[in-house]
Amino acid sequence: MKRYCFVLGTAFCLLFACIQAFGQENIPAKIDAIVGAPINAGRVAGASVAVVKGNETLVMKGYGFADLELDVPMPPRATYEIGSITKQFTAAAILLLAEEGKLSLADEMTKFLPRYPTQGNHVTIRHLLNHTSGIKGYTELPGFREFQMLKKPREELVKLFSGRPFDFNPGDEQIYNNSAFFLLGLIIERVSGKPYAEFIQEHLFDRAGMGDSYYCTERAIHKNHAHGYDMDRNVLVLKAYVDHMWPYAAGSLCSGAPDLVAWSKALHGGKVLKPESYREMTSAARLNDGTTIRYGMGLSLAETDGRRTISHGGTINGFRSVLEYYPDDDLVIVVLLNTAGPVAPRDLARQIAEAVLGKAPDRSHPFDGDLTQFAGDFTGKGRGLPTTVHIAVSGNQITFINTETQRASAETLEYFGNDTFGFKDTVLIFKRENGNISRLDLDTGYGHNILSRQSTIQK
């Protein structure tokens, strides 16, 4: 009988191990299906994906096409314009200069850019790094469109936004801002005495072993560089021209999936910054009133389905991207698309994370009370234009529409406690005055908008 139980137990263990092994082997097939779906539907030309857990590479490959006109498949080491993923490299460069004692995060930007008109505001380098400067973002200005097409000196672009009124007092709010990182690039050049591209190459790309990464340009030829595409009325078209003078330190780097994995391993593995600098970069910033925002320095510190992530995405003409690191699982996910269209790399990365880690536990719970107290319109500053959020209630469901992002349909919110709701990476924190809802803090992981209540919905 004992022998029979031992054999039965051994067989069960072997079966369980086989099931686990099959599950692991099936992960690449699941990822192939996730990434292949929008490509097969004609919504994305091509993609490169890397998924690395610990020291195990689960997926590192290209999908679809690097060139639709010539039917060129996406090569394994394809490079892309990575847009705002650039910001974490700019932030790391600033922190390296701080380690050398050449600047302090508490320094006012005018110490290095003395002619910049701060209009009586005290803007520090820290404000620039976490999007709390209040400086007007240039990509949201009406006169910006011509800069995308025409080659103009940097000074002309700085003039476009420098004279504009500040959106808010430095540190009062957080609005995602490309102007701030453009200015950080100028500070890097002023302090280091080197061109931005050269400093990034020598101090970051070379240090992390990123041999396929470089500063983007429309003229130089780079092997394995994917062609970019936009979507026009649901049809893929060649991307619009972009002069890389304007994205600069906010979004002008090119890289590929293997290199971005190498960067993530180097940055989070302590090979780029000293421990105290890394903590600065990956710690949540605070507003003047003590409110914690889910952004560090060039990095979003949000959660994805309840799991901690350190990440950033990027969108630029013809390309969309995301680089995510799950610190509790030592998981790196890179999704690069050579199509700037409706398919969001972050949504694909979320599905990939679930395929690798399993479905995250549900953190939400029912709201025990009257949901209609949250319903109404909330308005405040946004990127370029005011943001209005509409909260509606139907039965036991509460929904959200953000007019700034022009969402076609409402998002259903989950309740997390303490007047806090959310969906995907976005968190909505309702604030009370005299017991009544008077304010909404909208935190996307990239911005923290403070919205005042404008109206209520009658029962």
Short description:
This protein is of the alpha+beta class and 459 residues long. Helix content is 30%, strand content 26%.
Q: Which overall shape is indicated by the principal axes computed on the Cα atoms?
A: globular
Number of helices: 11
- Count of the separate structural domains: 2
Considering the protein shown, what is the CATH homologous superfamily of the largest domain? DD-peptidase/beta-lactamase superfamily
The main pleated sheet reads as: 9 strands, antiparallel
Explain what the structure shows:
By secondary structure, the chain is α+β, with helices and mostly antiparallel strands. It folds into two domains: 278 residues, 3-Layer(aba) Sandwich (Beta-lactamase), CATH 3.40.710; 86 residues, Lipocalin, CATH 2.40.128.50. 30% of the residues lie in helices and 26% in strands. It contains eleven helices and 23 strands. The strands form five sheets. The protein has a nine-stranded antiparallel sheet with strand order 18-17-16-15-23-22-21-20-19, with no helix packed on it. Strands 3-2-1-13-12-11 form a six-stranded antiparallel sheet, sandwiched between helices. Strands 4-8-5 form a three-stranded antiparallel sheet. Strand 9 and strand 10 form a beta hairpin. Helix 2 packs parallel to helix 6 and helix 7 crosses helix 9. The longest helix is centred in the N-terminal third of the chain and has 39 residues. The chain is globular and about 60 Å long. The relative contact order is 0.13. The N terminus is likely disordered.
